[in-house]
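Support reply, case 0932

Customer input (verbatim):
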Amino acid sequence: MSKFSLRHLEIMAELPEHTTLGSAASELRISESALSQSITAIEKIAREPLCLRRKAHGITMTASGEYFALMARKIIAQVDELQATFPHQDGQLRGPVRFGCFASLSPHVIPALLEGFPPLHPDLDVSVRVGTHDELIPALNSGELDVAFVYDLLLPAQLGKQVIYETEMQVVLHPGHRLAQLQRPLELSDLVDEPLIMYDSTPSTGYVMQLFAAQGLVPKITASVPQMILVNAMVGRGLGYGLLMSRPNNAELSLEGRKLAFRPLRAPNYPSAVVAIWPGTAQLPARVLALIDYAIIAMNDSWRESSPGN
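Our regenerated output:
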């Protein structure tokens, strides 16, 4: 029994992108007659029509042809994955690593990863995208990203997950604020009548509102802004306080160089974590696992370096 070849799959994966044989043949770098013969051979193996070829050389995929093309793309992607990964007898990882990072987390994660990881694996092609959960999770599910680093807050259950470091919510204040002078952890009741500069992003906004609602409180939101650096800049000018997750290498200065004061928040302040996430059904290649392992080491080293006494 005849079997489909990799070339057959490449042809069928390309066909839905074109409306004429000439265009498809040009992209596949073969003649129109050779392409037509290949389609006939593929349909003979499949035992049903996969595309309709009209007299004017137009082509239209059948429902079976569309399904064939979808499966062919998946198989070709897996073959490309193999070719990017093997052989690596010399110990070198090869191929693309596409990772995403939650926006407010990105200044604390991306520089550390891009400084240290690519030099360890020079044959990898590392790229990064910054966004919110609403942007990063669909990109993971569509295959545009291999992994994303986000807060472990309100994540879909079907995602794979690896903890990078533990964290929890803390309060950021102007150093001259009366609450910054207290030696005890702050409570939400201390903050409820103070102007809150809300970091407006999914899932951060919902998490903050849940913290207040759990105590029957409603925060006094004076501004909602889409960037954490803007929250800090406004706090640095004494316009209100902010709530953000504790993190390593966190400079106690605003973008304008104004001092900030960070204070712990008393329970209920549910512990969370920064995690690497990926589609739960995905088998992560060695190069992506290497990035996750490096992130754990790099970020926990940053925690130790920023701890008091170091």
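We compared this against your earlier run and they match. Two observations from our side: The chain has three domains: 6-85, 95-167+273-306, 169-270. The longest helix spans residues 63-85. Please reopen the case if you see a mismatch on your end.
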